[in-house]
């Protein structure tokens, strides 16, 4: 992971547009925030997935949503992504309602979902190409990102030749290659082994630190949520409600491996765990 | 070191297999020649290897009749394959674009597909004449359904994660189809095409056997009818070679096109 530290300089040309003026930090307008109010969602089969869910996410904030499986956290994310319509409550993303395909939102799935017929580089620039970013800048951006995720030299490899972890690195590069202010991530590291997971968390942190985009990160792994986030939202079992909104004040920049030995980190872990347990026993 | 050892072992193994194959064939043809020469079995039924070679030599390098027939068969097969697979792929696109059309025509097509196509040969002869086109029609009618069903399956089999991703990226319908659905369908379509090619050859040969002026099938039927069994075996050998080379070429194209697999 040697190359990760200096990503900042390499991505510099495209960073400006994601940096919001710092003076307005205290009084940011709705146009910069993601605001979810009284969200309630039933599926067609009567399944009550989400109940009375309200959340405001500040610009540049990294927010994780944790909860037992089936608690509706992915439903919240998919509603944010505009993959299905909001039936009750409101969602405002930077002042407008969610819609699949809007260019200020990027979505990343649990499975890498790389296209097997495209090389790593072609996969990395795929989204940008769909969004008609000009050829030259998307190529150089994809190349820089592949280096940033530690895949220098694998640009021309097809996914079949890459390991699970490497494929998810490409998927990270593809997501960050999109110039979207809001990143929605649905358990992107859920299928990886513990070691690879820690490495990729660090990669994600470095990428995020460089551009400070708003991230909504779904996971069932508490340690992952705490290590990455500014805030951890704990949800109850179905129908998912918010049990607590815990601020993670661990100093940044963070080192994932150093955190594993940090007392503050473990204190937060047991706090979040207690809340999560409350949600499980609530039924 | 162990790598070298494995390679050497493989090489030795392959050589042994190749040699045993040759030995087997030599023994097989030797016994055949012996049985036939000594009339243990009447050569009228089984021909004679030396006669087969003689026939091939004459047909290919002296009278050039086999090349002519081979050419007719190849041209008919390619026409049948091209027309049948193009029509199959076009139909699949129509089905994907307008599912109602598929719903409407499904039972009709199933019935047509279930019909033993060779039974249509007399009709095709009547409609398209004794020349090349009745054979092309027969071959194409076989290829068409195979390619159609594989193309529909391939296009339907798009990974739903890929489609979700395309939606969130804001891909247009056209972009989704050209950049995701189509490349994803290529392997399935290709296996349909490979099978379709073999069936095109089958249809053409069957058509030629029934009635034709030229072609390997016509030769086959003529030679068998006049008890030139060595000639029949010679034509069969050419057909086996033709089929094998068609498949080989198809595999080459496929591995070139699908090197990502």
Could you please describe the fold and organization of this structure?
- The complex is a heterodimer of chains A (283) and B (261).
- By secondary structure, chain A is of the alpha/beta class.
- Chain A has one domain (2-17, 33-281): Rossmann fold, CATH 3.40.50.
- Chain A has 10 helices and 9 strands.
- Chain A has a 6-stranded mixed beta sheet, sandwiched between helices.
- In chain A, α7 links the parallel β6 and β7.
- In chain A, α1 (7-15) runs antiparallel to α5 and α6 runs parallel beside α7 (194-211).
- The radius of gyration of chain A is 18 Å and the shape is globular.
- The N and C termini of chain A lie far apart (43 Å).
- Chain B has 11 helices and no strands.
- Chain B has helices spanning 2-37, 43-46, 49-62, 65-97, 99-114, 121-128, 132-156, 160-169, 173-210, 216-225, 229-257.
- Chain B has 2 domains: 1-41; 47-257, MetI-like fold (Orthogonal Bundle), CATH 1.10.3720.10.
- The mean pLDDT of chain B is 92.
- In chain B, α4 crosses α10 (216-225).
- Chain B has 261 residues and is mostly helical.
- The chains are: A alpha/beta (283), B mainly alpha (261).
Summarize the entry for a quick read:
The complex is a heterodimer of chains A (283) and B (261). By secondary structure, chain A is an alpha/beta fold.
CATH superfamily of chain A: P-loop containing nucleotide triphosphate hydrolases
Mean of all residue-level pLDDT scores of chain B: 92
Number of domains of chain A: 1
- What's the average pLDDT of chain A? 86
Radius of gyration of chain B: 24 Å
Please tell me the CATH architecture of chain A by its name.
Answer: 3-Layer(aba) Sandwich
Largest interface: A-B, 26 and 21 residues
Give helix and strand order of chain A, one letter per element, not per position.
HEEEHEEHHHHEHEHEEHH
CATH architecture label of the largest domain in chain B: Orthogonal Bundle
């Amino acid at each position: 992971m040697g190359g990760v530290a200096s990503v900042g300089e390499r991505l510099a040309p495209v960073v400006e547009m994601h940096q919001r003026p710092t003076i307005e930090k205290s009084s940011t307008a709705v146009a910069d925030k993601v605001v979810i109010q009284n969200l309630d969602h039933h599926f067609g089969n009567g399944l009550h997935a989400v109940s009375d869910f309200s959340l405001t996410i500040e610009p540049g904030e990294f927010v994780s949503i944790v909860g037992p499986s089936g608690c509706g956290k992915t439903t919240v994310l998919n509603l944010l992504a505009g993959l299905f319509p909001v039936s009750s409550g409101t969602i405002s993303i930077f002042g407008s309602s969610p819609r699949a395909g809007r260019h200020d939102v990027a979505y990343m799935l649990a499975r890498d979902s790389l296209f097997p017929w495209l090389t790593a580089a072609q996969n990395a620039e795929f989204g940008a190409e769909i969004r008609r970013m000009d050829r030259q800048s998307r190529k150089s951006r994809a190349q820089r990102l592949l280096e940033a995720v530690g895949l220098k030299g694998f640009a021309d490899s097809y996914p079949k030749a890459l390991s699970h972890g490497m494929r998810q690195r490409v998927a990270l590069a593809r997501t960050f290659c999109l110039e979207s202010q809001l990143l929605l991530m649905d358990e992107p590291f859920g299928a990886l082994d513990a070691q690879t997971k820690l490495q990729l968390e660090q990669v994600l942190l470095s990428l995020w630190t460089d551009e400070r985009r708003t991230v909504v990160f779904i996971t069932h792994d508490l340690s992952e949520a705490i290590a990455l986030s500014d805030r951890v939202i704990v949800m109850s079992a179905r129908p998912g409600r918010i049990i607590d909104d815990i601020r993670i004040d661990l100093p940044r920049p963070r080192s994932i491996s150093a955190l594993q030995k940090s007392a503050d980190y473990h204190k937060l872990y047991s706090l979040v765990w207690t809340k999560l347990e409350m949600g499980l026993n609530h039924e | 070191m162990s790598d070298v050892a494995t390679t050497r072992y493989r090489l030795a193994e392959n050589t042994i297999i190749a040699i045993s194959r040759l030995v087997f064939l030599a023994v097989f043809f030797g016994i055949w020649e012996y049985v036939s020469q000594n009339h243990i079995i009447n050569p009228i039924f089984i021909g004679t290897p030396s006669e087969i070679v003689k026939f091939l030599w004459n047909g290919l390098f002296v009278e050039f009749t086999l090349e002519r027939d081979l050419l007719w068969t190849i041209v008919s097969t390619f026409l049948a394959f091209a027309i049948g697979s193009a029509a199959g792929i076009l139909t699949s696109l129509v089905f994907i674009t307008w599912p109602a059309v598929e719903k409407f025509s499904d039972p009709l097509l199933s019935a047509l597909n279930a019909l033993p196509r060779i039974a249509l040969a007399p009709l095709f002869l009547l409609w398209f004449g004794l020349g090349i086109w009745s054979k092309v029609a027969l071959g194409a009618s076989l290829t068409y359904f195979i390619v159609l069903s594989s193309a529909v399956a391939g296009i339907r089999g798009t990974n739903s994660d890929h489609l979700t991703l395309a939606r969130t990226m804001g891909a247009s319908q056209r972009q989704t189809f050209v950049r995701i659905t189509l490349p994803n369908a290529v392997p399935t379509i290709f296996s349909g095409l490979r099978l379709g090619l073999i069936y095109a050859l089958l249809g053409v040969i069957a058509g030629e056997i029934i009635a034709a002026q030229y072609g390997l099938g016509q030769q086959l039927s003529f030679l068998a009818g006049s008890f030139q069994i060595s000639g029949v075996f010679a034509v069969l050998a050419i057909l086996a070679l033709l089929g094998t080379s068609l498949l080989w070429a198809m595999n080459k194209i496929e591995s070139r096109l699908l090197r990502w697999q």
